[in-house]
Amino acid sequence: MLKHLRAPRSHALAAAIGLTLVSAAAFAQDAAPATAAPAEGEAKTLDALMVTAQRKVERAKDVPVALTTVDREKLHVLGSGGGDIRFLSGRLPSLNIESSFGRAFPRFYIRGLGNTDFDLNASQPVSLVYDDIVLENPLLKGFPVFDLENVELLRGPQGTLFGRNTPAGVVKFESAKPTRELEGYGQVSYGTYGTTNFEGAVSGPLGANWSGRASAMFQRRDDWVDNTNLNARTNQKLEGYDESALRLQLQYDGSDTFHALFNVHARRLNGTARLFRAQLFKKGTNDLFDGFDEEKVGIDGRNFQHLKTFGASARLSWDLSNELTLYSITGYETADSLSRGDIDGGVGAMFLPGGSTPVGIPFTAESADGLPDHRQITQEFRLESNYSGPLNWQAGLFYFDEDITVDSLNYDTLAGGVQAGHAQQKQRNKAWAAFGSLEYAVTDRFKLRGGLRYTQDKKDFSASVLQSAPFGAPVSGPFKVTTDVDDVSWDISGVFQATDDINLYARVAKGFRAPSIQGRLLFQTPPQPSVADAEKVISYEAGLKADLWDKRARLGFALFRYTVDNQQLNAVGGALNQTILVNADKTLGQGFEIDLDAYLTDNLMVTFGASYNDTEIQDKNLFVAPCGGGCTVTDPIVVRNGQTLAAIDGNSLPQAPKWVYNVTARYSLPLANGNEFYVYTDWAYRSEVNFFLYESKEFRGKALLEGGLRVGYQWDNGRYDVALYGRNILDEVRAVGGIDFNNLVGFVNDPRIVGVEFKASF
Asked: Taking every annotated instance into account, which residue ranges of this chain make up the domain TonB-dependent receptor-like beta-barrel (predicted)?
């Protein structure tokens, strides 16, 4: 089933680095004083991993789904350098996250399936669920990661139990809950470029029947990139931000049969939008231009980003009997944003790379995308059984209602940045679903599960050109589109307990994503919205989950293969500079994933993850416009109706690395009075990625290896912690995305950050 498994030298290098770190830490453990070792018979073991992947608490071993969890300490370490939700990219098998909007608009990919569309009403095949609420709009999916219990990554279609649009999988976040005991923590850090992080929470009782939790975070970074254009209309320094978020929870726990958890949360982000760099790539290669300096850029357009989100939810449950529980989950979300940037990444119509001869840019581009009006309402009712016999079930209803307005604005950079184009999209999306699942214990060692979901989804869309852009569409519209579809999704799986420590499972699942509509009309002549029909996924998966070495290690392994019919893809670029939606006849994906957690010694904890994803677009009749000039296209070229097109049959999906590796190692040296010295290192590697549907020598991201290191000291039984940390400690600089505006525009990853942090708990 799998092919091309031989890893090139760069993959071996990534694995070797991880193994070297582990070996070094093991040597340090062997060299530690004898008093550091636990007493005989007290070897550390891993507790049973509990998850809610099937909407109820159960052992991960018993769940027939490939999943990975991230605990609180790992989340804390990964985010210590001020990173947003993208710090999870590559830290879990088969997961990639990228953004052309910076911190505001993350795009998720699982097993290669994702959506590169940068429109503010774009749908994604990866669903993000935060405290049981589906966050549909991409701007909602960047909500900060703080004060969480854990994160669960569920790979493969999950539609029979979760929200909507989950053909690739689900990333599930669960906040830390209110407690009946007074507790809390506060942490503050400071690092390179003035990177300042604060995070804290207070939790405790609020009378006899209530408890509450208040959590907050603040992150800030100074502007650290100098704009070498002294006549710029934007700031002379760029790439800074300040972001804050708040979460308030109120829990009712005064009844044995009724429970309630209320949640209010908000986010505010201000700073630089994604910084684009003209002529980033050397012609004919994906090398950065000679003399590239990540701390310098030359642009003349304005650059800023503002985002506010607010949400509230109510999670209620009633124990109707000892065997039945009814759940109600109500959610409300809203977002307001405006992001403006110099998209051509240069000055005027020229770019001066490293002081050499000026390079011409075909045209200037300065634009903004805004979300002036948005709201999302969701409601779910779910009934769950808890029988003592072999049969149990869940059944429910789900409702989704989203109303959104998107502004697309163009500016004339050479005329002082005056507005020179405005298009607007409006979309109302209503969907409802009925779902259910059954679980039957055939024997004490063999369980079967099956799920079914009926979905009805309707979109009413209109788009208008309110102000014509130069060389663009005239004032026109509204152009109206309506889609109305229904679908039946399903899954069937089995778990077999081969031994007391090893479970085998297999799963077949069908996923569904409703049609998408896009109306970026400013430069489309004649203006016309594009529509991508519904896509459907059939996924096959088999694997094992095992406890090893007397529960000192835990292993997960999965093989998978999937097919996507009518996959929704986003085609950008070409001489006409258009962005349109298309459907590919079929896409194939296959690969494997490994998860390993292990105590190599009592003081050395190691995790390792790896995945191989081979994706292929199969459509001999699908052609897209490549870059209109500048890049070196490697796909076959045809000319149809006077337009140059590239054949993409056989290409891999964009932003879909074949290889992902990650490793962490935590070595602790226990000291007197419950104190501890520790070293924590983490590494993530992903292989090359293609930025667009067509392939070219320039728009292909090189392999990326990023590492972190944390050296700390804890005292008073872990209540206090002081640490030195580093993120991207090798200072790897790589292009992680591009904009196909015919001038080899790209953007790079975050810089190396080094800092110090203090944390106190009570």
From this structure: 298-729
